[in-house]
Amino acid sequence: MIFKQGKKSQKKNNSPIQIVKLAEQTVQPFVYFKNPAKEMQPSISDLSDETRFRLLKKINHKEIVHFVIENMRSLNGPMVFYYLFNLLILLLVVYFGFISIYNGYFGWLTLLTHFLAGIFFGMIVVIPFHELLHGLAYKIAGASKVKYGACFKQMIFYAAAPGFVAGKRQFSLVALLPFVTLNLVFIAGFILLEPAWKWASLIALLSHSSLCIGDFALMNFFAGRKNSEIFTFDDTEEETAYFYETVKEGG
After folding, report:
1. How many angstroms from the chain centroid is the CA of residue 49?
2. CA pair distance 43, 36, nearest whole angstrom
């Protein structure tokens, strides 16, 4: 009986959610120590003070696609990086696929099947891990609660921290943690695996990076407001995101 209980406990602790919770407990104390300015972060009630803040944008979660398209067009730092990174990976995909066929590393059938495998891992399998990492980033930034949701009509999945006000630094952490972590996994696969799975890892890397466009478009929105600080929070009951900017004196 003791052996079985120990086995169940081990299985529970190895689940993705348990791993995320363990990471939160490990990292969070150090983040708070390094972020003494956290106490100065405005609350939702602070944002209602019209002498200090102005409502910039109010977006229903169902309208997020239009918001992403709108903000992916302006070439601020985040979108420039996004386009250059994906272009580099695309060129690497074309080059590696060509030399693999030319040098006989694998045949056309393997090229096709592992291409599909890469898309499957990079666009489908990765989704829950991507959103869990968003949730972990929210917790590291100081959010007390994280909710997960989806809009299947638009094929959108998201993590939200109801009532948590995030500035540019906190939101950048939330946006970038899944991009960096999961892409490093795919890059490791490209380096360590045999040629056919190197190819699949490259396709997964390109697929996942492409799907991160929403995160980069939102960071691009922050980057486009250079003359004011931007703060955002989610109302998960209304399924709405609010964006506020600081009001300058005399503005």
Report:
1. 30
2. 16
The residues, ordered by sequence, that sit 6+ positions from 111 with a Cβ below 8 Å of its Cβ are: 97, 100, 101, 199
Query: Worst-scoring range by mean pLDDT, 22-31, 41-50, 76-85, 152-161?
Result: 22-31
Q: Is residue 208 part of a domain?
A: yes
User: What residues pair up with 54 in beta bridges, in sequence order?
Assistant: 245
Domain count, the chain: 1
pLDDT single digits (tens) 3-16: 343 444 444 455 55
Residues with Cβ within 8 Å of 58's Cβ and at least 6 positions away in sequence, in order, are 240, 241, 242, 243
Calpha distance 203→217 (Å, rounded): 22
> Is residue 175 assigned to a domain?
yes
- Give the residue from 122, 84, 77, 87 showing the smallest Cα distance to 217: 77
Report d(CA 241, CA 160) in Å as an integer: 9
Cβ(221)–Cβ(77) under 8 Å?
A: no
pTM of structure: 0.80
Residue 10 counted as domain residue: no
Question: Could you tell me the CA-to-CA distances from 106 to 58, 97, 182, 238 in Å, in that order?
Answer: 51, 9, 26, 52
* Spatial separation of the C-alpha atoms in residues 107 and 114, rounded to whole Å: 11
In contact, 68 and 214? CB cutoff 8 Å: yes
Diameter over CA atoms, the chain? 72
- pLDDT for position 152: 76
Number of other CB atoms surrounding residue 197 within 10 Å: 18
Return d(Cα 243, Cα 57) in angstroms, integer.
5
